[in-house]
Amino acid sequence: MKERLEKIKEEALKQIESSEALDKLNDIRVAYLGKKGELTSVLKGMKDVAPEDRPKVGQMVNEAREIIEAKLEETRQALARKAREAQMKAEIIDVTLPARKANVGHSHPNTVALEELERIFVGMGYEVVEGPEIEYDEYNFTKLNIPEGHPAKDEQDTFYINKDIVLRTQTSPVQARTMEKGKLPIRMISPGRVFRSDEVDATHSPSFHQVEGLVIDKNITFADLKGTLAEFAKELFGEDTKVKFRPHHFPFTEPSAEMDVSCFKCGGKGCRFCKGTGWIEILGCGMVHPHVFEMCGIDPEVYTGFAFGVGLERIALLKYEIDDMRLLYENDVRFLKQF
Ligand code: DAH
Hints:
Layout: H1 2-18, H2 22-33, H3 38-44, H4 54-90, H5 109-123, E1 127-128, E2 134-136, H6 137-140, H7 151-155, E3 165-167, H8 173-181, E4 186-195, E5 207-217, H9 222-237, E6 243-250, E7 253-262, E8 279-288, H10 290-295, E9 304-311, H11 312-320, H12 327-330, H13 333-336
Parallel strand pairs: 1-4
Antiparallel strand pairs: 2-3, 4-5, 5-9, 6-7, 7-8, 8-9
Helix pairs in contact: 1-4, 2-4, 5-11
Bound molecules: 3,4-dihydroxyphenylalanine.
3,4-dihydroxyphenylalanine binds at residues 170, 172, 212, 250, 253, 284-286, 307-309.
């Protein structure tokens, strides 16, 4: 009996020592100390032991159990420690590695240009107002002195929702909407998206952005228009920027002009950027036409005003010297990152 116990004990200890995983230890516990385990079966065989030897055998069994349990516990702790160390090693954090940068993105060149324009005009006391992108034909054309059959309507061919409703071709209808509200004087800019049925190329897109401007008060003259837009050009392109007004025609202003700025690349000497002319065209403008005043409920004998319209993309392309408008819409981050 004694020998059998010794054998069981040695066998158990050997197995415990060579086990490398915690669940393996548990199997061993069950195999030796469990209900159907080896040691338990020795106790069960007690009835075959002479009564006087039973206490002795019982004590031996208990001793063996204690030794095996102690070894199990010791090994369990060692294995657990080893597992924890391995885990710590695997999950080690190198605090000297540079932190991953927070990816916050940044403003689109169009947005940067718009914010710059808004800053300049808000600084001069203008309000920023918005109008609908889906507009009545009446506001987009008729109230701007572009009646049915007017050639300007062909030039700005657009997308019709139905006979009376269009995707606006210009931000100018916001002029009519603002005048009709009847709150005078007016000093506003109105940025927004416009639409034309143009083919996409380096300088055209069926959808682009404009910023409209409108000033109405008593005694507003062309001198106010010139002074305001000259100041705007200086703020946008630099203190040395000169402006030039070329007569032009827009149905809703009279007289009308296009404004050029001296080339900020060559200072006006002529270069590739300004195609050798020294000047760059940037906007259309003029004195609000009396017909427009009348159609929008303002007395042209009392009030005068000026208006202007700037292409936002054109400003962004110029400012950042981008030579293809399509780049602004492709949203290639490698391109956008540069600005
Ligand atoms: N709406 C014109 C266009 O899309 C631009 C324009 C020119 C706006 C003269 C104006 C202006 O307010 O006075 O071509």
